[in-house]
Amino acid sequence: MAAAVSHRWTISAEVMEYAIPPIRDMLVLGRNATVGCIALRRALELLIKSPYEHIEIEGDDVLSDILVRSALLRRVPRDELIRFVLKDIRPMMGSDEILHVTLEVKVLIQSLAHEATQTG
Question: What residues contact 48, with CB distance under 8 A and at least 6 apart?
Answer without folding.
Answer: 20, 21, 23
